[in-house]
């Protein structure tokens, strides 16, 4: 069959586009090279819903950031993912920084963000008593917030697939050509997908995808950001996202109260060569600790539970590149979606949908669209009474598998049945293994549940697909040397 | 109906069915107090179940046992004394009710949500392992990184191989035991890397698990980088100079597996939520000489109180704590006056943190120094009241002191300190 639209890449941009298109009578397929969706740039970032003041009104970034920000309540209501409008505080620690604060504030106003508030020292400390008392002032953006980015992508994809979009994971594009009528997209393992339109939402690899499809030649430069996660018991967790005064290349190192109750510190911003370089380093940890302790003095390295790094897909222009290709027909480029890409993503989906329409895609609204996903239930957030009712339907609801995050067997089984069959897939879907013991106690239990539900033998389970095998075999299979 | 939440009432609720919990339950149940032991796992024994090596019980049972054997004997004692067991059950909340009773919320597949009201609670939850994230080991995040205990569980309980060639980070006892266990399973062990100038595990484990297998132990070295995108491919190891890695002298080791044995953290989140105060030096509760926390009726013993070296001491400590629980249930009030006990020079901590004047008390310590010529002393109100020669002092091994009630009279603070005795040769 020939699809109307093939979207390459199931990160936030691709998923939001698929979700938009799922409202219409078009046949859409979402193609993902990884074993699960949202596991690239979308997984490893700060999870900030930005406040609309960092970028000038002339940029596509600012336009889509402001529109995207406003769409999150509706999305959360329909798609049920962790999102909190915590508010953002940008804090200055010397009078020298105040002119930049003033500039950002005015830029926000010019962008149409009318809720920003300039704050003196007392106001800042009143809003956020955990701030370093050396703060001299700053401003408050009540419209900013935090979202769990991977949960958000899972929800977009779940709704899109519920409404008819097809999803293929472990599908890596190596070549694409237009035969005069439509596109042929070829995968590494010999698969072929035919589609009338192609959306290139391939994140770090958008330059490669454009090149192998005969589109524009451009370069994505990975810019690495390391992040460190603190336990939910950390006394230093603030109420708001705390930003420093930004530099030219980065919004700076932040203190982030995540929507799920932990505290994240980071990210750094360093250009790297390798698009798979997500290593963390000792130097950067030390740098981050110094920077965040300047903002909230109580942050302690003792509360660290894990670290990770993500890569921003940076274009030379530093703006988003979302436009129909001028070289490849019926091909929409969605590239350079770095910060504030997550915030902008709902609007990116809408914008790409409109571009497809301009390119001639016929969009007829579906007569039957399922708006609301069935809410995800979590043992950790049920009352004892409602949990008891759930137990009456399914005893697995009161079998706690992940002790640190209080995740029940029922939630893990649901994740596996929805196709998340890697340890990371289950972790990001359910939070099992994300807590303070980092899977020390529950990994083996989760692996057994995945194996039981999916039929994949224990020894063949992977952390995140590919060659990331978790075990080397059965006891007794190796020769014991004397 | 199915949806109502049942409340049961009991004298003693013990949280955790490892050595500490079983030992405490055996004491309270034998005295005729209704006792329930709650554990997340389907079998009692806790971490002992996966410790299939021997070396347990020499002190407590006067014979050498494996972990499962030790656990089984402790279970039989508690069961025969009349303790009840609620397994595959997780305590999700512990709180003090207005009438002074303690309430536990328990979740299990079998019974759903249950409430247990207890007159006394013994915290015996043990520890979790410190992991790679806690110590922020730099590098990639591939498959093949395990804590030593989780690899032990995979091998000994699930019968699965965690990898084919390993480096062990940290020289804690579980890591040392696992070095030998991996070798016996056909898994190559390339090195054990320890940041301290001395091993963190017991000397006997260094000998029996490393020396006997020619496994190199790199003291004052650190893993400074993990390689591998999908699965671990190797590590860089560098010597430490004044605590900082000397990157000029780093070297590479190929391996597909990393085991972290870098310390244990008492699993006290339940206690903290119940208002129990912790001791930053142990990560366990602050307790008086009754092993009672600041929340009346909540007691603590075993590794959740402080990390022990031998399970025998865990069982003994929990039995002492349980005897105090019985006194409390018999109506004996907490003594009105307690005096503080603190750790002085070269001691990481002392447990308990206070004593009752005139009552015999057993104190436990962790030394911070290595010496073959130590002197442990106690002063009360500035006056020395007790001293003991300790010929073999290692941070991996606990020290204890039993002080008679007659010594523990007088005002002021009880301070323990450890010194290297001047040699007499």
What does this structure look like?
The complex is a heterodimer of chains A (482) and B (425). By secondary structure, chain A is α+β, with helices and mostly antiparallel strands. Chain A has helices at residues 12-21, 60-79, 98-110, 121-127, 149-162, 206-212, 282-295, 341-358, 384-393, 409-417, 423-430, 443-454, and strands spanning 2-8, 28-31, 48-49, 83-84, 88-92, 117-120, 137-141, 145-147, 166-168, 173-178, 183-187, 192-200, 221-230, 241-243, 254-257, 263-266, 270-271, 304-314, 321-324, 331-335, 400-402, 407-408, 473-474. Chain A folds into three domains: 1-84 and 144-220 and 315-376, FAD/NAD(P)-binding domain (3-Layer(bba) Sandwich); 85-143 and 221-309, D-Amino Acid Oxidase, Chain A, domain 2, CATH 3.30.9; 379-460, Arc Repressor Mutant, subunit A (Orthogonal Bundle). Chain A is built from twelve helices and 23 strands. In chain A, the strands form five sheets. In chain A, strands 1, 2, 9, 10, 11, 12, 19 and 20 form an eight-stranded mixed β-sheet that branches. With 425 residues, chain B is an alpha/beta fold. Chain B folds into three domains: 6-128 and 265-334, FAD/NAD(P)-binding domain, CATH 3.50.50; 131-262, 3-Layer(bba) Sandwich (FAD/NAD(P)-binding domain), CATH 3.50.50; 342-420, Immunoglobulin-like (Sandwich), CATH 2.60.40. In chain B, strands 1, 2, 5, 6, 7, 8 and 21 form a seven-stranded mixed β-sheet that branches. In chain B, strands 10-19-12-13-14 form a five-stranded parallel β-sheet. Chain B has eight helices and 29 strands. The model of chain B has no long low-confidence stretch (mean pLDDT 95). In chain B, helix 5 runs parallel beside helix 6 (203-210). At the A-B interface, strand 18, helix 9, helix 12 and strand 23 of A face strand 7, helix 3, helix 4 and strand 11 of B. Strand 23 of chain A pairs antiparallel with strand 11 (160-161) of chain B.
């Amino acid at each position: 069959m020939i699809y109307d639209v093939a979207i390459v890449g199931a990160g936030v941009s691709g998923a939001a586009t698929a979700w938009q298109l799922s409202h219409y009578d078009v046949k859409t397929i979402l193609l993902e090279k990884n074993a699960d969706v949202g596991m690239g740039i979308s997984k490893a970032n700060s999870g900030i819903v930005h406040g609309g003041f960092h970028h000038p009104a002339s940029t596509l970034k600012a336009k889509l950031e402001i529109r995207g920000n406003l769409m999150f309540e509706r999305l959360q209501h329909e798609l049920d993912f962790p999102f909190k409008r915590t508010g953002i505080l940008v804090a200055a620690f010397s009078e020298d920084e105040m002119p930049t604060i003033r500039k950002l504030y005015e830029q926000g106003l010019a962008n149409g963000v009318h809720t920003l508030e300039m704050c003196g020292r007392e106001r800042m400390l009143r809003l956020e008593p955990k701030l370093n008392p050396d703060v001299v002032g700053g401003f408050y953006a009540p419209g900013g917030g935090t979202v769990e980015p991977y949960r958000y992508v899972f929800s977009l994809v779940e709704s899109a697939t519920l409404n008819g979009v097809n999803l293929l994971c472990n599908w890596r594009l190596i070549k694409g050509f237009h035969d005069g009528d439509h596109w042929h997209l070829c995968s590494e393992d010999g698969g072929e997908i035919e589609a009338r339109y192609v959306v290139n939402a391939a994140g770090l690899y958008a330059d490669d995808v454009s090149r192998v499809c005969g589109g524009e030649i451009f370069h994505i430069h990975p810019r690495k950001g390391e992040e460190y996660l603190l336990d939910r018991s950390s006394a230093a967790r603030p109420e708001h996202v705390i930003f420093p005064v930004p530099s030219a290349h980065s919004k700076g190192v932040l203190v982030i109260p995540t929507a799920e109750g932990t505290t994240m510190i980071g990210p750094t911003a360093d250009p790297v060569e390798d698009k798979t370089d997500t290593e963390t380093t000792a130097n950067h940890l030390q740098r981050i600790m110094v920077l965040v302790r300047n903002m909230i003095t109580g942050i302690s390295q003792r509360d660290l539970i894990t670290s990770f790094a993500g890569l921003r897909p940076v274009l030379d222009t530093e703006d988003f590149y979302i436009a129909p290709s001028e070289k490849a027909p019926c091909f929409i480029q969605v590239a350079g979606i770095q910060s504030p890409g997550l915030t902008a993503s709902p609007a990116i989906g809408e914008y790409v949908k409109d571009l497809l329409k301009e390119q001639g895609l016929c969009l007829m609204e579906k007569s039957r669209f399922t708006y609301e996903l069935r809410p995800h239930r979590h043992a950790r957030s049920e009352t004892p009474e409602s949990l008891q009712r759930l137990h009456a339907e399914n005893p697995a609801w009161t079998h706690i598998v992940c002790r640190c995050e209080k995740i029940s067997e029922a939630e893990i089984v649901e994740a596996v049945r929805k196709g998340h069959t890697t340890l990371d897939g289950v972790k990001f879907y359910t939070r099992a293994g994300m807590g303070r013991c980092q899977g020390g106690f529950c990994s083996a239990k989760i692996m057994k549940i995945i194996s039981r539900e999916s039929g994949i033998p224990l020894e063949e389970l992977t952390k995140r697909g590919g060659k990331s095998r978790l075990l080397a075999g059965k006891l007794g299979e190796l020769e014991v040397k004397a | 109906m199915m949806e109502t939440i049942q409340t049961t009432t009991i004298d003693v609720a013990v949280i955790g069915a490892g050595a500490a919990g079983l030992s405490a339950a055996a004491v309270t149940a034998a005295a005729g107090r209704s006792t329930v032991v709650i554990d997340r796992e389907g079998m009692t024994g806790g971490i002992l179940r996966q410790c299939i090596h021997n070396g347990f019980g020499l002190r407590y049972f006067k014979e050498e046992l494996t972990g499962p054997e030790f656990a089984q004997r402790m279970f039989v004692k508690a069961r025969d004394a009349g303790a009840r067991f609620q397994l595959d059950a997780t305590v999700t909340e512990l709180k003090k009710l207005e009438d002074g009773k303690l309430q536990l919320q328990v979740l299990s597949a079998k019974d759903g949500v249950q409430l247990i009201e207890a007159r006394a609670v013994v915290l015996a939850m043990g520890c979790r392992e410190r992991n790679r994230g806690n110590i922020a080991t730099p590098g990639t995040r591939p498959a093949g990184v395990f804590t030593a205990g989780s690899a032990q569980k995979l091998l000994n309980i699930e019968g699965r191989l965690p990898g084919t060639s390993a480096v062990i980070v940290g020289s804690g006892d579980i890591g040392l035991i696992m070095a030998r266990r991996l070798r016996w399973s056909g898994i190559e062990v390339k090195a054990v890397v320890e940041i301290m100038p001395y091993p963190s595990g017991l000397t006997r484990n260094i000998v029996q698990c490393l020396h006997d297998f020619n496994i190199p132990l790199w003291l004052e070295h650190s893993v400074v980088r993990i390689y591998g995108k999908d699965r671990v491919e190797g590590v860089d190891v560098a010597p430490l100079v004044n605590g900082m890695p000397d990157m000029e002298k780093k070297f590479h080791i190929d391996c597909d597996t990393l085991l972290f044995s870098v310390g244990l953290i008492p699993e006290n989140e339940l206690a903290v939520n119940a208002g129990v105060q912790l001791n930053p030096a142990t990560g366990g509760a602050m307790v008086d000489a009754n092993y009672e926390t600041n929340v009346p009726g909540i007691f603590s013993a075993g590794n959740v109180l402080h990390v022990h070296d031998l399970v025998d001491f865990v069982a003994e400590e929990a039995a002492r704590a349980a005897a105090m629980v019985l006194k409390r249930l018999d109506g004996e009030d907490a003594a009105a006056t307690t005096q503080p006990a603190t750790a002085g020079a070269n001691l990481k901590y002392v447990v308990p943190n206070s004593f009752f004047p005139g009552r015999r008390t057993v104190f436990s310590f962790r030394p911070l120094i290595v010496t073959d010529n130590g002197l442990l002393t106690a002063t009360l109100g500035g006056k020395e009241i007790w001293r003991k020669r300790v010929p073999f002092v290692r941070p991996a091994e606990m020290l204890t002191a039993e002080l008679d009630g007659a010594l523990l009279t007088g005002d002021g603070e009880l301070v323990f300190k450890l010194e290297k005795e001047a040699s007499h040769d």
